[in-house]
Amino acid sequence: MSFHFEGLLEVNGMLTKRPATKILVDGGDPEETLRIKSLIGFVDGQTTNPSLIAKNPEIQQLLASGHRLSTQEEKDEYKKIVQSISPLVGDAGVSIEVFADLNTTAEEMLAQGQEMFSWIPNAYVKYPCTHEGLRAADMSVRKSIRVNMTLCFSQEQAAAVYAATQGSKEPVYVSPFVGRLDDQGEDGMDLVRNIKKMYERSDGHVHVLAASIRTINHLLCSFFLGAELVTVPSKVLQEWAAAGFPMPDQDFVYKGVDAKGRPLKPIPYKDLDLKLPWDSFDLTHELTTKGIQKFVADYQSTLRRSA
Ligand code: G3P
Question: With a threshold of 0.90, does the pTM exceed it?
Answer without folding.
Answer: yes
